[in-house]
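Field reference: sequence -> structure
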Amino acid sequence: MMKYMKPLSLYQDLLKVNAVERGRLLGLDVGDKYVGLAVSDFNNKVASPFSVLVRKKTNIRLMAIDLKLLISELSLSAFIVGYPYDRQRISPEATQVKVFVDDLCKTGKLEDVRYTFWDECFTSKNVEQLLKPLNLPSVEAKTISDKFAAVGILQGYLDYVNRNVETEQTQ
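Structure field:
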């Protein structure tokens, strides 16, 4: 079973492991057709675009296998999953993200993988606005948008946890 952790707790757990074994983080921007992926550097300071997985209800096991392979290939230690927080109501997008994570858990392929949710407020919209002037073909624009939305999610998380860790160390 995948293991949910609070954002700061996840990072504090990672810091308990020596730097060589700590691993990198994978950011996920879960959409209805694609899941954008971004990966952190080995110091968990900078996020970079990585790839896009096609998402269908029928391929969740294949996605879990792909993610399992990435864990070993990229030395991943945890997933940072974009989540559309809305204080007033649970949106359909938020439900979609929860269902995706639950479905990954049910595959049994990602045992002991730690993950947390991170607010993805406007990451996709911001990237779409940046890409608009480039007039890219729609499929290409969508996959680039999903990768960079994942970068926004992961970088937002990294900035937050690193700032909080530095604050704790200086106190």
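Note: The first strand starts at residue 3 and ends at 4.
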